[in-house]
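ESCALATION

Customer reports they have been waiting on this structure for their group meeting. Please prioritize. Original submission:
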Amino acid sequence: MDATSTAGPMAGVKVLELGTLIAGPFAARLFAEFGAQVIKIEDPRGGDPLRKWRKLYPEQGGTSLWWYVQARNKQSVTINLKSDEGREIVRALAAEADIVIENFRPGGLEKLGLGYDVLSRANPGLVMVRLSGFGQTGPYRDRPGFGAIGESMGGLRHITGYPELPPPRIGISIGDSIASLHGVIGALMALHHRDATGGRMHGKGQVVDVALYEAVFNMMESVVPEYDAYGLVRERTGASLPGIVPSNTYACRDGSIVIGGNSDPIFRRLMIAIDRDDLANDPGLASNDGRVPRTAELDAAIGAWLAPRTLDEALAVLHAADVPAGRIYSVADMFSDPHFIARQMIERFTLPDGQRLALPTITPKLSETPGSTRWLGPELGEHTDSVLRGLGYDDARIARLRADGVI
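Update from on-call: job pushed to the front of the queue and completed.
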């Protein structure tokens, strides 16, 4: 499909991506999946390091399989940002953009002469999403900050895992992804404000400042008021959900099962399903505040019922009782699960060498304007010439810029 051909709710929106690896590119990816034209600027000398992260295909000298997901529907344009002519190209692209997404360390774009103050002069309606470890202000702004640091400082690591063990990391870059989602939400709100105050030509753009640690901190539910009111520091509690009972991971005869029986009517159904009518009818357990002090007792009762049963046997009883329960899926389970299949959560595409490759389907599902994968992550600089031609550069000038190492 033509790289400029778009459909979806973000069709007509132009996004300029100045970022590498995870947080910035993931935010831009969401816009690309729903129809925005996303121009990704990459260094001519190798491009985004994500191209070589994790498993490659082919394994020797190939491209990251993650890249095909993270960069789908984007246009790759190679520009040397250390060259004057390269920065001139970026300024020209920003002048036509609705959104710029960047995840340089704070001050990095300013050193290149590409800060918001510069780019917005020619485009007052421009929205710039700035993703960084600690934000654009404050005493830590100049520190390097990856997702792992944001997860730690934002509080997530402290409450994750078992109390007798050091805090583990979650097996994905969750801090970066949470920050990306906040960046997209902020950009959409800023676009709405711009359009409500005069549109692209006359409306007012703004900066969306997302710090990774603050995005994680924003997900921490009630830890702040609990500490302020009671001096309570929430700690690691393993697989249970503190203060919400019963909600835990339990052992069956052949594996682990997760049960969420924490609403009042569900708790009653759960107790009846495990043959503990005495607990179901205990008035002291009718609401969550009464169940919390008896957490150990309730977990023991549930565990005793599950221990002699297989996962399938337990799930059949619990599902019949309308109790939320499920096994813990690996990716192999997802490929064969009938619900994943019915919801079309995995799609297959063809790589340039003919290899078929499964990718996750785009989320969320919109009934009228769904997202789509129009093409997989592009080759390095695949769209450089076409994008420059769109700016009015002729073939001779493009050839000279390439010879000079600008592109």
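Sent to customer with the following note: Residues 174-196 form the longest helix (23 residues).
Escalation resolved.
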